Write a sequence for this structure.
């Protein structure tokens, strides 16, 4: 009887597994194979095996690669840091008792469900160098003498990009932190209050340590998903001005689908995967250590 | 003494609402700004002193967005509706079956498959794009809505199997056992007894995958280029490239039209979605 029930379980799982192996795991390995070829849509020649050539090119010959690598770290950790810097306080506030709290909790997710392209329309218009409201407000308060072309200047473009990314991503962190906060027993706070803790000390010594598991898990999810996201950067700046906001993800895209050098793009994808696996590995190890 | 206590509570309430206001303003202002501007005539949009209200509201921008003289978004909206609708049907089929196995049975390898589902959410976008482009070209399905549905499945199925397994977990086991004693086959019990009980979950996963597919930009960008298959996201991004300096009002109206469906759907499934997302995170 038990074995028969197992068979039923495998039968029900089979379609999902076949689908994911065929359409997700196979492409992943095919991508590794392609990274050792000179596959290109230009020139019309058959692609052939060229060994480590693509990898050697990016790691040792390409002058842009390391700048783009640094940009990727800035993009991922900048986005995630801001998302938590905004998400944790928002969760603390929304965890209080309010009139129509459910409504506010739902509304806070609006940026998160918005399509990326619309998000970039919104922020492009806010940051617009001539008509944007950001310039207007800063000028009104005499913080700016002249209009700034926010997205066209390598020194201001990162601020804009990370702000847009934080806006889109912080609601997810807020909801995760709210779930974490609901798991904290009221008695813990009352005991701490009896011991004389209040205000920030309450947050620092009670809330934060108890939130830590939720922070770690959603932090990992945020890092990994931001690592492979290129849509927001692409639709806001296309990696520009110059290569100022190019990341590994936009570089994979532009190599493969703007210049049609797909073998090169594939090798970048492999390098990118290796780095994100490394980061996750060390992240999880650090997490295990801190728990012991 | 009592008066002082009252004042303290009043003040803390006031700061609490102040914080709430700040958070909601940051969250919603950019969106409202989009909506306001979509109703402004271009004289008010390109103004040296932008206003927080609309002086002369107009539908001109929406006519531009949908009309043949402007963006002609209708066709792209239709493509998106078809691609996203079919994705949610596909996802429902896989999530109702896979989720049942995961939520109901303690079989060998269950944990491994759970980890596999979480990991497969990592391998998305640029990491599988190039082989997909090659595969789709080889099979002759590039530039079709079909290829979009197939690739969206890789993004929606892992999450939705998780979501559904949670819903099956809530169905009492005795029900299907009773049905099987009464002579139902296992599949019959699943089909007639269990499935009707998880209809809310089916609706939630269906709408969730609709949103994911609707919002996709990256896959549609590489896999579709003809008007026959191009989704509204790709169309919208191209509009920004073509008319980004002149027709901001029309572009913002198009943006509102593009985000409206997901916001409406989101309001419908909000409660289930938040529950499913957070419980999934706690589990893993």
């Amino acid at each position: 009887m038990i074995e028969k029930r197992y068979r039923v379980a495998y039968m029900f799982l089979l379609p999902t597994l076949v689908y994911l192996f065929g359409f997700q795991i196979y492409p992943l390995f095919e991508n590794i194979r392609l990274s050792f070829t000179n596959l290109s849509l230009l020139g019309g020649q058959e692609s052939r095996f060229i060994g480590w050539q693509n990898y050697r090119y990016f790691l040792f010959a390409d002058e842009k690669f390391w700048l783009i690598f640094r940009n990727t770290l800035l993009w991922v950790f900048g986005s995630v840091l801001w998302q938590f810097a905004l998400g944790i306080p928002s969760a603390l506030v929304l965890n209080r008792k309010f009139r129509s709290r459910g409504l506010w909790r739902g509304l806070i997710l609006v940026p998160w469900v918005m399509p990326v392209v619309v998000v970039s329309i919104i922020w492009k218009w806010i940051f617009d160098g001539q008509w944007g409201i950001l310039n207007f407000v800063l000028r009104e308060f005499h913080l700016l003498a002249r209009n700034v072309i926010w997205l066209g200047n390598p020194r201001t473009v990162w601020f804009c990009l990370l702000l847009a990314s934080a806006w889109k991503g912080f609601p997810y962190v807020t909801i995760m932190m709210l779930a974490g906060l609901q798991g904290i027993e009221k008695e813990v706070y009352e005991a701490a209050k009896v011991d004389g803790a209040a205000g920030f000390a309450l947050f620092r010594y009670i809330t934060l340590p108890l939130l830590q598991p939720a922070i770690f898990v959603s932090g990992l999810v945020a890092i990994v998903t931001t690592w492979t996201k290129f849509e927001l950067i692409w639709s806001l700046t296309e990696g520009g001005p110059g290569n100022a906001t190019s990341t590994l993800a936009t570089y994979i895209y532009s190599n493969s689908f703007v210049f049609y050098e797909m073998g090169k793009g594939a090798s970048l994808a492999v390098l990118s995967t290796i780095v994100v696996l490394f980061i996750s590995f060390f992240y999880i190890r650090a997490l295990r250590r801190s728990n012991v | 003494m009592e008066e002082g206590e009252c004042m303290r509570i009043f003040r803390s309430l006031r700061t609490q609402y102040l914080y709430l206001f700040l958070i909601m303003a940051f969250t919603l202002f950019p969106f409202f700004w989009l909506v306001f501007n979509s109703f402004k005539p271009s004289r008010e949009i390109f103004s040296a002193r932008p206003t927080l209200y609309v002086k002369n509201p107009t539908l001109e921008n929406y006519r531009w967005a949908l009309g043949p003289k402007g963006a002609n978004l209708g066709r792209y909206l239709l493509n998106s509706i078809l691609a996203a609708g079919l994705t949610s049907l596909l996802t429902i089929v896989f999530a109702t079956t896979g989720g049942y196995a995961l939520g109901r049975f303690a079989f060998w390898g269950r944990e491994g498959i759970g980890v596999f589902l979480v990991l497969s959410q990592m391998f998305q976008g640029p990491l599988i794009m190039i082989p997909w482009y090659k595969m789709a070209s080889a099979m002759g399905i590039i530039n079709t809505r079909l290829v979009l549905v197939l690739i969206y499945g890789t993004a929606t199925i892992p999450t939705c199997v998780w979501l559904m397994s949670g819903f099956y977990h809530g169905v009492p086991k005795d029900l299907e056992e009773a049905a099987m004693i009464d002579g139902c086959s296992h599949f019959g019990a699943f089909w007639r007894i269990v499935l009707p009980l998880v209809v809310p979950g089916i609706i939630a996963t269906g709408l969730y995958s609709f949103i994911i597919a609707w919002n996709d930009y990256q896959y549609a960008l590489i896999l579709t280029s003809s008007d026959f298959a191009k989704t509204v996201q790709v169309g919208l991004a191209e509009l920004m490239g073509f008319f980004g300096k002149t027709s901001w009002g029309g572009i913002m109206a198009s943006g509102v039209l593009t985000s409206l469906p997901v916001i409406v759907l989101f309001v419908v499934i909000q409660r289930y979605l938040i529950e499913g997302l957070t419980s999934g995170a706690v589990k893993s």
User: Anything to note?
Assistant: Chain B touches chain A through 90 residues (CB under 8 Å). The radius of gyration of chain B is 24 Å. Chain B has a mean pLDDT of 87. Chain B is about 80% helix and 0% strand.
